[in-house]
Amino acid sequence: MEIVPSIDLRGGKIVRLQQGDYGRQIDYAVDPIAAAQSYQQAGAKWLHIVDLDGAKEGRPLQGERIAQIIAATGLKVQTGGGVRSEADVQRLLDAGARRVVMGTRAMEDWRGFEQLVHDARFSGKMVLALDARDGMIATRAWTQTTTRRAVDVAQIVSGWPLAAILYTDVAKDGMMNGSNLEHTRALAEAGKVPVIASGGVGTLQHIHDLCGLPVWGVIIGRSLYEGTLDLRQAIAAAHPLPGAETAQGA
User: Fold this and answer.
1) Catalytic: which of 51, 88, 131, 169?
2) In which region does residue 78 sit, left (phi positive, over 0), alpha (psi from -120 to 50) or beta (all else)?
3) Per residue in 123-136, pLDDT tens?
């Protein structure tokens, strides 16, 4: 399982929103580039960057900052937030992103999203963000809840050339009390597209819990800034050395 540290940007600074609520923002006095460099030094291969300004305004606004982070670290980056158009996707890829995350546009213009995913230029580079409350998809920076089930959508896109599905339980996000294991497992087993779990990871035990699910990776954010989870330990738990489990059980 891949451990993917997250940087949520608002106004060029690192913040976290509790349960996606812009009125419940936590600010961190950490430079985004310095944070990303520390993740790379700790052994991370991927970095998840969220443009919260873009998510709220409906258009990417942190592209320059994202490009700076990519240039400074060499990490493989997936990023999203306000991505609505083909031009938005191309600009982020041109900035150095390996994957682009799209959520609201997908739900509101499903046919257009399908065409985008199947465009040869973007094959294997698009991540579908399925953010949900009680299994029902939320859009517009989680301010609106739809009548579509995340599991149903995962089944529909099972054969599509998506890089991944990013599944976030809105009720868990930023709370550090553990992931929604039941819904995450159901989504991961619903189709063939790799699933990235997001929301609620606060301790090493939460990493161990997710290792038992058929997910490609997990996003961790607030727990890193508040010191409840060590990135090196999380990576070690997700990538045990050969024979480590046997040794622990001996």
Assistant:
1) 131
2) beta
3) 999 999 998 877 77
Residues 17-60: tens digit of each pLDDT: 766 667 777 888 889 999 999 999 999 999 999 999 888 888 88
Q: pLDDT higher for 171 or 153?
A: 153
177 vs 170: CA distance, rounded Å? 12
Any catalytic annotation for residue 8? yes
Q: 14 pairs with which residues across the strands?
A: 9
Give pLDDT tens digits for 55-98: 888 888 888 998 999 999 999 999 999 899 999 999 999 999 99
Q: Which of 77, 44, 16 shows the shortest CA–CA distance to 231?
A: 44
Identify whether the C-beta of residue 162 lies closer than 8 Å to the C-beta of residue 126.
yes
Catalytic residue, from 8, 51, 88, 173: name it: 8
CB 167 within 8 A of CB 181: no
d(CA 77, CA 112): 24
Please list the residues that pair with 46 across neighbouring strands. Answer: 76
131 is catalytic: yes
**Distance between CA atoms of residues 229 and 49, nearest Å:** 19
SS3 content of the chain, % helix, strand, coil (to 5): 35, 30, 35
